[in-house]
TrEMBL record:
PROSITE patterns: HTH_CRP_2 (PS51063). Residues 148-222 form the HTH crp-type domain. GO terms for molecular function: DNA binding; DNA-binding transcription factor activity; kinase activity. Pfam families: cNMP_binding (PF00027), HTH_Crp_2 (PF13545). The keyword Ribonucleoprotein does not apply. This is cAMP-binding domain of CRP or a regulatory subunit of cAMP-dependent protein kinases. GO terms for cellular component: cytosol. Keywords: DNA-binding, Kinase, Transcription, Transcription regulation, Transferase.
């Protein structure tokens, strides 16, 4: 029996109940903790993708470097996230990944995932759902950059981060920690740092959002969602039907089909 849940186990328990074997399979992915410093690289674009990692503590981000020296940040990773799921097929890292804060990562070989695929259809279902959710976040990021104005971009991204945090940290309130600098936000949203600063000032003046260093305060979440035009459907937890089917198939001797 595990003494306490690993970060990944806690994350998966948000989606489904786990038996002891499933919890141990996940905990095994966090057996090699490595302390990381702020801005330290996990890997670089085009390097062989022979390992993935669990982000046990801290925040990280993926990005692509441009020829002019700028960068486009594609995703923000939170504690409990598996980094590298999108690289499982091409076997080369499609993006560079670096730490946003100090933290702990646990690297593991790809065959640890195939172990899970062979052992637990329920965990396989959740893993594929998480990979699909990461793709959905990327699709929403494209819409955010291409079709929303600066005010909507900032508000929508803040709504997304708040919802993602609240899934694994149930005590997340309208006040929460967001350790992203102005430049990081600019590189996520495709704006200049000056434009990001101006947008935060406008939202503050309207009483919609207060930002003090890395602390965010949203007094009225419903009103803020309306400003952002935010719908949480792309972050939906609707894996219940898939899990029910997985359980039925397991009991009948089948598998995921």
């Amino acid at each position: 029996m595990l003494d306490r849940d690993s970060c990944l186990v806690r994350n998966f328990k948000h989606y489904c109940a786990l038996d002891e074997t499933e919890a141990e399979l996940l905990a095994a992915l966090e057996k090699t903790p490595q302390t990381m410093s702020n801005a330290q690289m996990l890997w670089e674009e085009n390097h062989p993708a022979d390992t993935l990692c669990v982000l046990s503590e801290g925040w990280a981000y993926s990005y692509r470097s441009m020829d002019d020296g700028t960068r486009q940040i594609l995703n923000i990773f939170l504690p409990g996230d598996i980094i590298g799921l999108s690289d499982f097929s091409p076997r080369r890292h499609l993006t560079s990944v670096a730490m946003l804060t100090e933290g702990v990562v646990c690297r593991f070989p790809l065959n640890n995932l195939t172990n899970i695929f062979a052992t637990s259809s329920r965990l396989t279902t959740v893993l594929f759902s998480l990979a699909g959710q990461q793709q959905a976040i990327m699709a929403e990021r494209l819409v955010n950059m291409g079709r929303r104005n600066a005010r909507e971009k900032v508000a929508h991204f803040i709504c997304e981060m708040h919802l993602r945090l609240s899934k694994t940290c149930p005590n997340t309130s309208h006040q929460f920690h967001l350790p992203l600098s102005q430049q990081v936000l600019a590189d996520v949203l495709g704006l200049s740092a000056v434009h990001v600063s101006r947008t935060f000032s406008e939202l503050r003046e309207e009483g919609l959002l207060y930002r003090e260093r890395n602390r965010i305060d949203i007094p009225d979440l419903k009103a803020f969602h309306e400003v952002a035009g935010f719908s949480d459907i792309y972050l939906s937890d609707s894996v219940d039907e898939l899990l029910e089917r997985s359980d039925r198939d397991s009991h009948s001797g089948g598998g995921l089909r």
